[in-house]
Structures are given as C-alpha cells and as structure tokens.
Design a protein that fits this description.
alpha+beta; about 15% helix; single chain; 7 strands; about 30% strand; 3-stranded antiparallel sheet; globular
Length: about 90
C-alpha cells in the first residue's frame, strides 16, 4: 500500500489527505498522518497471519512488525512510490 497527498487546499477540496496503495484493493482514501500494520491489514481485508510487506520505489521489500506505525509522506507521487501487500 502507498500514500499520496492530494496536494490541494483542504478548504477548497474536502477530499482525502492521502491515498494508500493496498494490494487487492487499489487506492484507498486516508486522512491520518500515520497508519499501523493492523489498519493496513483491515483495509486490505487480509488474514492478520499473512502480515504486511512494504514495497518502496526501488522495489525493495520490508516486512512490517505487528503494531508498527508508519508515518505517511505528503506528495502526489508517494502512492506510486510506496505500496503495501500481504506477506
């Protein structure tokens, strides 16, 4: 899954602050500046035993720890650079 800031002023556009790229779901709107492993699992509707793998822009994979908190980064390209998939 990955995140993307809409880049628009919140007053002119009440849309989501981030878009998350989650395997099997696609882009998911997200308002908070952080997300946990468990929230990613819930959004993806995965079995928690599968875990979560973060994939960065260079296609490097990293398994997220249970209860890990991921800080989202602003920018339109973030959801194209970072994504999450079931582990």
């Amino acid at each position: 899954m990955s995140f993307q800031s809409t880049g628009l002023d919140a007053k002119s556009n009440p849309g989501p602050k981030y878009m998350l790229n989650i395997e099997g779901v696609g882009l998911v709107p997200w308002e908070e500046d952080t997300i946990t492993t468990e929230q990613i699992i819930a959004l993806g509707k995965w079995d928690s035993a599968q875990g979560v793998i973060e994939v960065d822009a260079d296609n490097n994979e990293r398994t997220l720890a249970p209860q890990e908190v991921i800080k989202l980064k602003p920018g339109l390209g973030f959801s194209k650079k970072v994504r999450w998939k079931r582990g």
